[in-house]
């Protein structure tokens, strides 16, 4: 039988020391660790005693602690903005008992292809706060693209701007409680009729995720009424490897349909 | 029909509260002292000969007590199908064999002091396989060049077509009339093939068994089974342990649906316990249930009909090819039901042929699954009839009403197609299918919405479809149930039945039947069921038999009790027996109004005069199998861009005779409907090129949650079946037959494409729309 | 490892393996009302309340649950004194095989604690992690509505 050593640090300094040990990883809710193979895990750092369960609303930003569960994020965000993209995405994620257990930190660290958190965070251009050898705030895209950042660092929380976006979130699933084949996140901001800014993110494609910058550029600055979502997705090229139950061609088709519908929704056309 | 005090009342299921409070026990909840835990090694390859097997490393794992494989266990051919004797399934399975026939076939087991040690030991068993050519395509199973899957001394206990040298596990041919003439007389011929796929029962409780010894050294098997008496017989046969040394106890069962009509684990726990004289326990993981237990048989049904311009069918030919997988469990009878439960519904067809073949492949093993072949047959039948109704410009509801079998009518198919032997001819005593069709159509708004292609949103369109079906109530001439009762001091009764409540509520409805005969509240009946030492025999929970046949035994038994109550009361009241009646726990003299309560009668017989205990027993068989009928309607909303067909409303109207407990009857239909929809649209076994199921877990084999169900309406249409106790027929299986064809017909109504195979996933609907150019 | 677990209000000292999940610990210590249907967080048969929150006990390491309040379905009522939700399930035909029922009842309990008058979609969301193969969910949803009504009426 394999023994796992459990650590229950109550301050971050202790965590730093533990991180230097081989095969020791943080434990938030445990759902991700249990889904993955446990074979390389030698120790688990339980984060429960660390002050990472915070949810702070500042003037321009919102800070969410790494130990906040999906359910807690939904409850807290709802009070600020019931239409917020995180509320939309997380409240349809997994199931009630799992949302009570999956944490923000664990979800970012593992970034499973079915994550419902990552699309919105990438679209929101969230910052990831790290503690450890590379302490500080890092843009989420650079964080997920640079695996060195993950090593030896603990995610303590995320920071997002309090901008008001109109949001659209779609997840392709077989039943409601399923892991999505892909997700589509669209954020859009208008000044009068003009589209001031937009962010479009696909998760689940080749390379895990794609921000559709070319499409964003095309839309930005235009009058909302002149953007015709129908056929707009022909402008994008995106690859999928296919799933056990879905062919790549069909996924590509679905993504296009969902992007067009999402744009129609956020544009209010 | 009379004024019932129990029949037709939705009393609480008698185990509902003990289950809702977590008090009642399932197999894995029994505390077994110091058991050996069993882990099983499964074949990773689809078809191979074991060249060499080395268990020495496994045996050395700390805590391991026994490692079993073909080299050290008895070689007894049998079938795991938990059917009556002689089982109509071929004897083609061994506890462990030298040859493996599908990914998931069992190779060996390890028994150890802990579960972890058993699992570790299994991993250390070294097996060298010599790969054999696998056979995955059932259409090619009978080709001369096809690899042969069973090469030894397999045989059948019954006179049936069985040719393992051709991979043929069963073949059935029946017919009457002149098919050719019928086709020649037709104005047009309609011919199509329809395919249904593998599915798992997904009972939430996985297969579980344990065995221990009682104080006198007899083997007690506690097991999650639908067939405790067949378990005892089959374990005895396979292990050569006398029946008198075995007791089988069925505790609460966490769902069966046919999956637990298989005797898979019981011989293993019994074997380990018997060899080591220690308790033993085995619990399947969800993955093991998916890959190694039983499934719904995939089937290809080809229907060819000759049709007159007015829709009259002058000839029908039904050709079924069924994939039974690596073993022939239920290979003959599921196949027979695909015709036997379907073709009699249109009994006016004069020229008919049914040809069915079940073939072996190197894929998972089929078995009993709610609907039992009728589901596969009705998927074809109902779509086919929808096509004919449309081609002859009729509403399918009118078409069905014109041609379905009616009260007082029969069908030659009843006699021709039985389950393992010739069937039994019967006349329909009760059929309220017209009312089912009308009330179902009304509830879904059929006439306002069908054929209208109502737009329900951007690129979304609605469609309506329906299906009808019948099933049976038990297997006539084969099933047998027994019951016994005894009276207690306070006028309550113990009821002992072999009938097997697997969550259906049979304990409750059998108590209701007994209570009705005796005119007492159902609480006065104390039920004990399914313990081979304590209760009488019953073939078990399958074939929609319990309410009708086990109910018949209980009614007969209670009638005997009633007679004894009247005899004693006539002495006590000094009254003529003829003038006495039972009323609310008393015997009343209709002439004088004098009465004596049951507790006084009990005291009188137990303690006072001419002492004896009021008790009785009865057995029941059936000479017919009255079909329940159902009409089911689906309203779907199809997204033309994505192909996603969402069922928004589903209505079932069922004629199950007199419902004993309407809420429980509705519950049977609702559960069957949701299982049927989930199967029709979503659930799927995905195999890789080597025949391995790649999605053996609930996060990859999706079944419906509460968030996936449409609005569901269930209408129970009362009828009275004179051959059944209090007018009952069955209700357990029938509801699963309609969802797939009703949805397929609704998809056609919405977007004009025919879905010839399940599951009707969005991608498949989308592809069909592309093929037909209707996006 | 060793830990103190507060199960249904009673503290017990238990030794357990470092990689054990809460489900195994509970079942091995007599809480057989917590059912195992898949061990992968999908079926919901094993849900319990952990400090008042519904969780899949198969997805929680026992080590991380030590010291916390654990409530199983036996903790909210028993056969002699059932919780109104348990009675409502029994009354409305929501219990067929009963294997999913402890989980369903606890999911409903969590919902009604914070939302005494839920809409149907809120009931469905509350039980979205609990699989049932027998009932088709219809009577389970009905049972939660009946329980909510009875609990509101009886305070």
Which tags fit this structure?
heterotrimer, A: 269 residues, alpha+beta, Uridine Diphospho-n-acetylenolpyruvylglucosamine Reductase, domain 3, Enolase-like, domain 1, 3 domains, five-stranded antiparallel beta sheet, four-stranded antiparallel beta sheet, globular, C: 155 residues, Ubiquitin-like (UB roll), DNA polymerase, domain 1, 2 domains, five-stranded mixed beta sheet
In the CATH hierarchy, what is the class of the largest domain in chain C?
A: Alpha Beta
Portion of residues in beta strands of chain C equals: 5-15%
Estimated radius of gyration of chain C: 15 Å
Strand order of the largest sheet of chain A: 4-5-8-6-7
Number of helices of chain C: 6
Elements of chain C, N to C (H/E): EEHEEHEHHHH
Largest interface: B-C, 56 and 56 residues
Low-pLDDT stretches of chain A: none
Helix-strand topology string of chain A: EHEHEEEHHHHHEEHHEEEEEHH
β-strand number of chain A: 12
Number of domains of chain A: 3
- Overall, the morphology of chain A is globular
CATH architecture of the largest domain in chain A: 2-Layer Sandwich
Summarize the structure.
The complex is a heterotrimer of chains A (269), B (775) and C (155). Chain B is an alpha+beta fold and 775 residues long.
Can you tell me about this structure?
The complex is a heterotrimer of chains A (269), B (775) and C (155). Chain A is of the alpha+beta class. Chain A folds into three domains: 5-46; 55-161, Uridine Diphospho-n-acetylenolpyruvylglucosamine Reductase, domain 3; 166-267, Enolase-like, domain 1 (2-Layer Sandwich). Chain A has helices at 12-19, 31-35, 70-80, 85-91, 96-99, 104-110, 118-123, 140-145, 147-150, 213-219, 248-267; strands at 5-7, 24-27, 43-46, 55-57, 61-65, 127-132, 136-139, 153-161, 166-171, 183-191, 194-205, 208-211. Chain A has a five-stranded antiparallel sheet. Chain A has a four-stranded antiparallel sheet with strand order 9-10-11-12. A three-stranded parallel sheet of chain A has the order 1-3-2, covered by helices on one side. In chain A, strand 4 (55-57) and strand 5 form a beta hairpin. In chain A, helix 3 (70-80) runs antiparallel to helix 4 (85-91). In chain B, the strands form seven sheets. A seven-stranded mixed sheet of chain B has the order 3-5-1-13-10-11-12. Chain B folds into three domains: 16-24 and 480-621, Aldehyde Oxidoreductase, domain 4; 32-134 and 207-283, Aldehyde Oxidoreductase, domain 3, CATH 3.90.1170.50; 295-475 and 624-772, Aldehyde oxidase/xanthine dehydrogenase, molybdopterin binding domain (Aldehyde Oxidoreductase, domain 4), CATH 3.30.365. By secondary structure, chain B is α+β, with helices and mostly antiparallel strands. The mean pLDDT of chain B is 97. Chain B has 19 helices and 30 strands. In chain B, helix 8 (331-340) runs parallel beside helix 9 (374-391), helix 15 (546-572) crosses helix 16 (598-608) and helix 17 crosses helix 18. The longest helix of chain B has 27 residues, at 546-572. Chain C is α+β, with helices and mostly antiparallel strands and 155 residues long. In chain C, helix 3 (84-91) packs across helix 6. The longest helix of chain C is centred in the last third of the chain and has 16 residues, at 138-153. Chain C starts with a strand and ends with a helix. The relative contact order of chain C is 0.16. The model of chain C has no long low-confidence stretch (mean pLDDT 97). Chains in contact: A-B, A-C, B-C. At the B-C interface, helix 1 and helix 17 of B face helix 3, helix 4, helix 5 and helix 6 of C.
